[in-house]
Specification:
Layout: E1 5-9, H1 16-25, E2 31-34, E3 38-41, E4 44-47, E5 50-51, E6 58-62, H2 68-77, E7 81-83, H3 86-92, H4 95-104, E8 112-113, H5 123-130, E9 134-138, E10 147-150, H6 153-162, E11 168-172, E12 180-187, E13 190-191, E14 194-199, E15 213-218, H7 221-234, E16 238-246, E17 249-256, H8 265-280
Parallel strand pairs: 1-2, 1-6, 6-7
Antiparallel strand pairs: 3-4, 4-5, 8-11, 9-10, 9-11, 12-13, 12-14, 12-16, 14-15, 16-17
Helix pairs in contact: 1-8
């Protein structure tokens, strides 16, 4: 008999151990699965090439890999609650769509431009709007990859060549926050009261996967409220919300449905499992 909860991870993740330990401690019965072992063929779900005959009540999806959409949607179409749902995962993993939606809701963020695919705006038109330097990102980039800081026309030409065919977003550079950002974590209506300042020294990219280090800080009520508001706008149940910092004010940077900073998980694992336990009960 299947457990009512499946914890689905990527096979190489750092997230699994703290979440599994928390589930065991809180007596949350579960099965651990790996997203790479799932497949959907002829409208049926397989795991390790074996037909899945029984589904859980809930899936906590801590993965984002190529080909995941079919598996994710299979669960949802067959009545399984998936955290987070595919619509939210798909939205959050598109940086441009995320920024555009939050802009409509008045969320403070760096200025940005959204060029049409394969229609490169002139360097002069970009600098007129964003100033120098500015940032170019692949809208679907992960872990700090495909992010370029542009100082001049030569940098711009090189970056655009590397990103040929990719959907991109051009953003204002917040120099005061270079190599540093604030990560917060939202679980339902609860915001973990400790945030993490990520700092990557001389690099302008703060991502821990790119070598950044984390320092804990207490979040203010205003910071917690802002993160909760953004999570609600994006439809996120269990997500991280990251900010750039300028003049002690927060500027939305990005959200993540699969934040992978192991330094954060002693703060996140128990509240996550308590949230899951309440749903299952």
């Amino acid at each position: 008999m299947q457990n009512n909860l499946w914890l689905i991870f990527e096979s190489n993740t750092s997230q699994m151990e703290p979440l599994v330990q928390s589930a065991n401690k809180l007596n949350v019965s579960h099965d651990v699965k790996y997203i790479e072992k799932f497949s959907v063929k002829d409208s049926e779900l397989f795991y390790n090439n074996e037909l899945v005959a029984e589904l859980p009540k809930l899936v906590l999806m801590r993965a984002y890999v190529d080909g995941q959409e079919a598996v994710h949607k299979y669960f949802e179409e067959h009545g399984v609650q998936v955290i987070d749902n595919w619509a939210t995962v798909d939205l959050i993993n598109d940086k441009l769509k995320t920024h555009q939606l939050l802009e409509k809701h008045g969320v403070k963020q760096p200025k940005f431009l959204a060029p049409i695919l394969n229609d490169t705006p002139s360097f002069e038109s970009v600098t007129e709007k964003l100033g120098l330097p500015f940032v170019i990102k692949d809208t679907h980039g992960q872990c700090g990859s495909s992010v370029f800081l542009i100082y001049n026309a030569n940098d711009y030409e090189k970056a655009m060549k590397k990103l040929t065919g990719a959907e991109i977003i051009l953003q204002e550079y917040i120099e005061e926050s270079s190599g540093k950002d604030l990560r917060t974590y939202v679980i339902g209506d609860y915001v973990v009261p400790i945030g993490m300042i990520r700092n990557n020294g001389d690099s302008f990219i703060s991502n821990v996967a790119a070598g950044g280090k984390m320092t804990r800080i207490d979040l203010t009520p205003e910071q917690k409220s802002e993160s909760l508001q953004i999570a609600k706008i994006l439809g996120g149940e269990i997500i991280s919300v990251d900010y750039l910092i300028k003049n002690d004010e927060l500027y939305f940077c990005e959200a993540n449905t699969n934040a992978s900073a192991i330094e954060f998980y002693d703060l996140v694992a128990d509240p996550t499992m308590l949230y899951i336990k309440e749903i299952l009960e």
